[in-house]
Amino acid sequence: MTITVLDTYPAMREILRAPRADRAALLKTMVEPAAGMYRYFPGDVDLVAMHAMSSGFPLDRDEERCLEALDALHEADAWNRIRRALDDAVTAQLAATPGLAIPDITVLTVLGDPGDRHFMGPNLGMSANGSVSGYLYLNFWPYPENLARLEATAVHELNHNLRYSPGGVIWDPATVTVGEQIVSEGLADAFARQLYGDELGYARIGVAHLRDDAVFEKVVSGLEITGMQNFAAWVHGDETAARYGGTPVGLPTGAGYAVGNRLVDAYLAATGRTAAEALLVDRRDVIDTALRTRAASTGW
């Protein structure tokens, strides 16, 4: 097992300083080592277009602002911190699940787009993806809160990657439920909190609603919904759903993360397991255990 954290700092610096006409080709070269993250997409994937759709730094504006932000990531030692965090997380995970097969993993770290209002606003300057076995995508704007959480964010995405790698939980787009993603977000946060504590381990977008019972009840009502096109609103909230053409359902940003944490925390408390030990737990076990705990409680 090898974890390769691509050193994208010099490449991004070169891209942002290059003539605009040359930037797309340079970006494609930078992203190609991680192109396997798009292997389930139909046909040939336009890596430059995917970069833009994922709120990656722009190729036609904000050069000086982006260069300053890129230097902030570099000065924060982002790439080395991410590498060390992933190594430590693998060690902790293998201690809890010694027989777990861990794939080779390639990590693509990029600077975000300061002109993307959704990314900089509701998403708080961070987006990431660890759902495709063998690849992690980390996109940051260097808000101080994000710099403090570099390790926790990487570890969160690693948890997703290991849950859905071969031999783990199967993500079938035709049958997967909202509940599976809600539970997976809770497990990933719980793993990050196991390693870095509650102050840094929670995904920032869910924190505001951790104790919101109305949000909890609403999300729980949708846990059996299938069809990935429906997930954005239930997991990320209405603003994200609207951005990507989904249907709002009346939920704030990060609702699914908040509820996932509550479900997983109740499950871990009831079973005495750690987040690492629960990596591959069935989402139904988590949900059923958590809801039984809630029904028996007078204060939760």
UniProtKB/TrEMBL annotation:
Highest rank taxon of the organism: Bacteria
Keywords: Hydrolase, Protease
A Gene Ontology BP annotation from the UniProt entry: proteolysis
Domain named DUF2268: residues: 103-287
UniProt key word Protease: yes
GO molecular function terms attached to this record: peptidase activity
Name listed for the protein in its UniProt record: Zn-dependent protease-like protein
